Amino acid sequence: MKSPFSYGGIVSSDSFCDRIEELEELRRVVNNAGKLFMYGERRIGKSSLLHHLISSLDEDSFTVACVDIWRCTDTSDFIRECARVFGSTGRHSPENLLQRARKLFTGLTPALTVDDFGKPQLTFAAVHRKIDPPLLSEVLSAPGKIAESVPDRQVLVVFDEFQEIRNLKDDRIERIIRSEVQKHSNVAYIFCGSRKHMIRDMFLKSGSPLYRSAVHYPIGPIALEHWIPFIRERFEMKGILPGVSIIKEICSLTDGHPYYTQMICDILWDTCDQGRSPDSSILSRTVQTVLDREGEGFSAVWESLPSNPRKMLLAAAFEKPLIQPFSGDIVSRYNFANPSSARNGLEYLVKHDLIESSSGTYYISDRFMALWLQRRFAASHS
Q1: 169, 201, 218: which is the final residue of a domain?
Q2: Of the ranges 7-16, 94-103, 259-268, which one carries the lowest mean pLDDT score?
């Protein structure tokens, strides 16, 4: 029997755990043409949540446009990607699609190609001339024009990995987005990002072009009370009934993070024979399997870090808890040159979303990276 636990990419609707409250809130935003920025750490379930939101919307009542900023390397890419997505919304014949694109984007040259499934696909030629603000405004004004042309349908625009706008190195984009979005009282916008520090700066830092232009909506782990029935029901399909204590142990290890929780359960599903419930010894071996799978990624992050951030990352992994990261004890124990070096290390890690803080305590964002560090450097910090 195939494992009912999914931890890679979009999860199926029957393994979505409990995001009912989040889905209802997002639907309210869409129905009221609201503006919201949603953020959370990588693999926390943002894309799955958006996928389920869009899937739940009636195609006859909603027009949805999803722009993936990861696809963009410069302003020209951003303009063409927005134009492609906005121009492709709705149901149109190939001829009407091209005609509509020419009307929406007078500053661009549209064309039609055919994708691998034989479906017409809208494309735009590269923008070789100097990109001026009017062209940006024309493209970003398209959702408002679409909404006016279909007054009986609600328009939703999703910008995924929105923080990547900053990497395009064009500060005009955020200013023009704010200017255009403010005009679109009949369009809902969701700005989604996984770089929490950067996305919060974009919407919550005074002086940012998008400051306070959208509602703040963080996405966190799933609570234990929702995991217990979810995990038990799925294991019962195989004739296995895990005890509440082992589920609590799993969720304690993962802090309720959907990706890691489902990865552990997926491995346990394959490990446990029918009728044999997982126990702490099996769970321990499973955790090592997870660390082996994720280790290459953790190693790549570690190797990319300068010296002071490495030292501070170790401090966060081994100090329980890390409360005074610039104290003489921490400076001495982790071989910082001085408190200023420790501060620089911490600031670097916070900026790159590797360390977070809560109630004065600093901790590594990825709980399994913390465990990987503890095991790898145990001998030098015993």
Answers
A1: 218
A2: 7-16
pLDDT at 10: 46
**CB-based burial label for 84 (10 Å; 0-12, 13-18, 19+):** buried
Q: What is the CATH number of the domain that holds 133?
A: 3.40.50.300
| DSSP conformation letters of 251-320 | HHHHTT-HHHHHHHHHHHHHHSPTT----HHHHHHHHHHHHHHHHHHHHHHHHHS-HHHHHHHHHHHHSS
CB 39 within 8 A of CB 219: yes
CA distance 252 to 309: 27
Q: Return the structure tokens found at 340.
A: 């200023």
- Residue corresponding to tokens 């969701």: 190
Positive or negative: CA dihedral 182, 185, 187, 193: positive
H/E stretch holding 123 reads strand 120-124
In whole angstroms, what is the distance from residue 373 CA to residue 322 CA? 15
What is the identity of the amino acid at 362?
A: Y
270 and 169 assigned to the same domain:
no
The residues, any chain, with a CB within 8 Å of residue 30's CB and separated by 6 or more, are 53, 57, 62, 154, 156, 188, 190
**CA distance linking residue 253 with residue 260, whole number of Å:** 9
Task: Give the end of a domain, one of 253, 282, 298.
Answer: 298
All residues at 6 or more sequence positions from 14 whose CB lies less than 8 Å from its CB, including other chains: 4
The domain in which residue 282 lies consists of: 224-298
Mean pLDDT of the chain: 90
- Quick: pLDDT tens for 274-322: 667 888 999 999 999 999 999 999 999 999 999 999 999 999 999 989 9
pTM for the full model? 0.86
pLDDT digits (tens, 9 = 90+) for 148-181: 998 999 999 999 999 999 999 998 999 999 999 9
